[in-house]
Design a protein that fits this description.
about 675 residues; alpha+beta; 29 strands; six-stranded antiparallel beta sheet; ibrinogen binding protein from staphylococcus aureus fold; 5 domains
Length: about 675
C-alpha cells in the first residue's frame, strides 16, 4: 500500500465506479423524460425527476459534480424555488427525452444526450476534482455550466466549445508492457505511478500494491515477477471481474472509509467493518445518505427561514421594549405613590418654587424647602424623597403633575398590554413556522430514509396472509407485470369485463389460501371499468401464471396490451366494488394502502371506504386529509401527499365511511 498508515478516504466515484454504474442504470435512464428539475445553487447539484413510460415509473437522477451520479427511487418531494439559475436549467432540459449515456473511456466524464423536441443537446458531468456540469448545444458549445472558469488548459464560458480536462487514464488490458516502458524513465513509488501515469483509481492502485506486497517500493526496483503480480492483480480487480459485490468499508470506529465495486484486498481483515449491497447505485446512495440529507435540509425554502428569523428578531425587539416599559412603569408607580402620600407637602413646595421664580428668579428657588436641584433652561426643578428624585415643571400646576402622572401610568399599562398581545401573536406565529420547518425536515428525512419497494410502482396490496399482490395501472403496466414479474405458480386475476387491471398474487411457490384470493379479487374488481360504469358487483376470474401467454394462436392477431388465457378459469362470484383506502406507518413514514375494509381495519391508522359515485378522486383525497386534521391527526395529515391518495381512488366515487383507529402518532 502507499506510505500512509491509514487508508485513503474515498469521497467520489472513480471511472471504474462510473463504468459499472452505467452498466447497471443505463436501461432505466435511457428513453426517460425530464419531468422536472431542481438545482441547488450553492452545491451545484442537479436533481432531475425522470419518467420512464416503458416502466410507468418516476425516479430521480442525482448529479453531484466532483462526487457522484446515482438514481434514487425514494419518493422525494422537493420544494419549489423561484431562483433564476433553476429556471434556466429547466428551460434547457425540462420535457427533454434522454436518448443515450456514454462515458469517456476510463475517465470520470459522462455525456447524457437529450432530445428537446427537434433540438439535440448534451449534458456533460465531470466527476473529477473541481468538476462541473454543463449543457451543450448540438455543436458542442456551452449553453450553461454550474460554474464558469478560466484555466490554463481550458475555458468554461457560454458560447465556446466545451473542452474536457486533459485525459490521464489509459484503458489497458494489460499493465506489463506499460510498466516495462515506464520504469526506464520514471523512478517513483509504484502506487504513485499507477495513479498518476496510468490513471488507476487510487483504491485499485493501493489494492494492487497491497496484494503484491510492494508498499513503498519504487518502479525501478521491480522484478519481472513483481510486474507479473501487478498485471495479474489488475486483471483480477478491473478486467476480469465477472460478478460485482459492491460494499461500503467502515473503520472499527464506524467511520466510513469509502464505497467500492467489490471487497478490495487492503480491507479484507478484521480492522474494518464491511456492508455489502446489491448494486453500486444502492451503495453510492447509502454512502452519501447523511450528506445528501444535510444538503436537502439546508435547501428548505429560504422564504420560510427568513420569515422565521424575522419573527424571532421581532420577538427579541418586543422583549427589550417590554423590559424598558416595565422599568418605566415601576418608576411611575413609585412617583405616583410618593405624590399621593406627600401630596400637601409637595404641593406647598411647588407653589413656593413657582412664586419664587416669578418674583425673585431661579437663583432663589433653593430657598424653598427640599429642593434638590434646578434646571432653568428646562423650567424644572427636582425634589429628593427617600433617595427618589422627582422632577416638576414650573409651567404646570401641581394638580396637572398629579393627573399627568396618572395618565402616563395608565397609557404605559395599555402599551405594555398591547406589546404583550403582539408578542403572544408573534410567539404563536413562530411556533407555527417552527412546526412547518420541522414537518418539512421530517418529510425530507422520511422520503430519503425509506426507498420505495419494487411493487410500489404498481397498484399494490399485502394480503392478510402476507402475500404481495400487484396490479397494472394501465395496459402497459399489465403487460410489464406479465413479462417481467409473472411466474408459472403465481395467480392472475381479472374482472370479467373488458378494460381492467391485471392483478397478480406473487406466490413464490407457496400455497395460496382462499382469503388471499378473495382479497385480491376485490382489487381486481375495483380497478376495472366496472367502477366507472357504477356496477356495484362483478365476477372475477383467476388462473395460474402458466395459463397466460403473450403469443396468439397460429394465424391470429393479439391486440396491443392483450394476452391469451388458456385452460379452465376459476371464478369469484359477485365481488362488491367497495374499497378501503388508508394510512399505515412503515419506519415512521406514513404510506397509503388499499384493500378490503376488514383487512385495513386491522392495519391502518385511519381509512376511508369508497364505492362508485360522482365525487372527484382529488376532492376525496383532500377531504380525507382535512378529516385527519380535524381529528387531532394534524401531523400525520401534513406528511401525506394528496396525489398519493388520489392515485389510489379507482375513479369517481362516494365515501361511505371514515375511520380513525385510536392515536395517530
Amino acid at each position: 500500500m502507499s506510505s500512509r498508515s491509514e487508508p485513503r478516504r474515498k469521497t467520489s466515484m472513480s471511472w471504474l465506479d462510473l463504468k459499472i454504474w452505467l452498466q447497471e442504470q443505463r436501461e432505466i435512464i435511457e428513453k426517460s423524460y425530464v419531468d422536472n428539475l431542481y438545482y441547488i445553487k450553492d452545491k451545484s447539484i442537479l436533481i432531475i425527476k425522470l419518467y420512464n413510460s416503458l416502466r410507468s415509473s418516476y425516479y430521480w437522477l442525482i448529479v453531484e459534480p466532483s462526487k457522484r451520479m446515482s438514481v434514487s427511487f425514494s419518493n422525494l418531494k422537493l420544494e419549489e424555488v423561484s431562483e433564476k439559475p433553476q429556471k434556466i436549467w429547466r428551460t434547457l432540459l425540462k420535457d427533454c427525452r434522454i436518448h443515450s449515456l456514454y462515458q469517456i473511456p476510463c475517465e470520470r466524464i459522462l455525456y447524457i444526450e437529450v432530445e428537446c423536441g427537434k433540438t439535440l443537446r448534451k449534458v456533460v458531468v465531470e466527476l473529477l476534482p473541481r468538476g462541473v456540469v454543463c449543457v451543450l448545444d448540438n455543436q458542442g458549445r456551452i449553453m450553461l455550466c454550474s460554474e464558469y472558469r478560466h484555466m490554463k488548459d481550458r475555458v468554461l464560458k457560454p458560447g465556446i466549445p466545451y473542452i474536457p480536462p486533459p485525459i490521464v487514464s489509459k484503458c489497458l488490458d494489460s499493465l506489463a508492457n506499460v510498466l516495462d516502458e515506464l520504469r526506464t524513465r520514471i523512478d517513483d513509488e509504484v502506487v504513485k505511478v499507477l495513479i498518476k501515469e496510468i490513471g488507476l483509481p487510487p483504491e485499485i492502485a493501493e489494492g494492487i500494491v497491497f496484494q503484491c506486497n510492494l508498499k513503498s517500493r519504487k518502479l525501478s526496483d521491480l522484478t519481472n515477477e513483481n510486474i507479473f503480480c501487478i498485471d495479474s492483480s489488475y486483471r483480477d480487480l478491473v478486467i476480469n471481474v465477472k460478478e460485482y459485490k459492491p460494499c461500503i468499508i467502515y473503520s472499527n470506529q464506524n467511520i466510513p472509509i469509502g464505497f467500492y465495486h467489490q471487497l478490495l484486498p487492503q480491507f479484507n481483515n478484521s480492522a474494518y467493518r464491511i456492508e455489502f449491497y446489491t448494486t453500486i447505485n444502492e451503495t453510492i446512495n447509502k454512502f452519501f445518505e447523511k450528506e445528501f440529507e444535510t444538503i436537502m435540509l439546508s435547501s428548505i425554502s429560504e422564504k420560510l427561514k427568513n420569515e422565521l428569523e424575522s419573527t424571532k428578531n421581532a420577538i427579541e425587539r418586543i422583549d427589550k421594549l417590554l423590559i424598558d416599559m416595565k422599568n418605566e412603569l415601576e418608576n411611575l408607580k413609585t412617583t405616583l405613590s410618593i405624590i399621593e402620600s406627600l401630596y400637601v407637602e409637595l404641593e406647598q413646595i411647588h407653589e413656593c418654587v413657582v412664586s419664587t421664580v416669578k418674583t425673585l428668579g431661579w437663583n432663589h428657588v433653593k430657598n424653598c424647602r427640599s429642593v434638590e436641584d434646578i434646571f432653568p433652561n428646562k423650567g424644572t426643578y427636582t425634589v429628593k424623597v427617600n433617595d427618589i428624585v422627582l422632577e416638576f415643571d414650573v409651567k404646570k400646576s401641581f394638580v396637572e403633575h398629579y393627573t399627568g402622572t396618572q395618565k402616563a401610568l395608565a397609557g404605559l399599562e395599555k402599551s405594555i398590554a398591547k406589546a404583550e398581545e403582539e408578542r403572544k401573536k408573534l410567539s404563536a406565529k413562530l411556533e407555527e413556522l417552527m412546526k412547518e420547518l420541522k414537518l418539512k425536515e421530517m418529510k425530507i428525512r422520511l422520503k430519503l430514509g425509506r426507498p420505495k419497494e419494487w411493487y410500489e410502482t404498481f397498484i399494490w396490496y399485502i394480503s392478510s396472509s402476507g402475500f404481495i399482490v400487484i396490479g397494472g395501472k394501465d395496459a402497459s403496466q399489465n403487460i410489464k407485470i406479465i413479462k417481467r414479474f409473472l411466474e408459472p405458480h403465481d395467480i392472475v386475476l381479472h374482472a370479467d369485463i373488458h378494460g381492467a387491471s391485471t392483478v397478480v398474487i406473487k406466490t413464490y411457490g407457496e400455497k395460496i389460501d382462499n382469503d388471499t384470493i378473495r382479497e385480491a379479487a376485490v382489487i381486481a374488481a375495483c380497478y376495472s371499468k366496472a367502477w366507472k360504469l357504477k356496477i356495484m358487483s362483478i365476477d372475477v376470474f383467476w388462473v395460474y401464471g402458466s395459463q397466460i401467454s403473450l403469443s396468439p394462436p397460429s394465424g391470429e392477431y393479439l391486440p396491443k396490451g392483450s394476452y391469451m388465457v388458456y385452460g379452465e378459469r376459476n371464478y369469484v362470484k359477485d365481488v362488491n366494488l367497495r374499497l378501503a383506502i388508508g394510512i399505515e406507518v412503515v419506519d415512521k413514514d406514513p404510506r397509503v394502502i388499499i384493500g378490503p375494509e376488514h383487512v385495513l381495519d386491522k392495519k391502518a391508522l385511519a381509512y376511508i371506504v369508497v364505492i362508485p359515485g360522482d365525487e372527484d378522486p382529488q376532492y376525496i383525497a383532500k377531504d380525507f386529509i382535512e378529516y385527519l386534521k380535524n381529528r387531532n391527526c394534524e401531523e400525520l395529515a401534513s406528511l401525506l401527499d394528496v396525489n398519493d391518495i388520489t392515485s389510489r381512488v379507482p375513479g369517481k366515487s362516494k365515501v361511505v365511511k371514515k375511520v380513525i383507529k385510536g392515536s395517530c402518532s
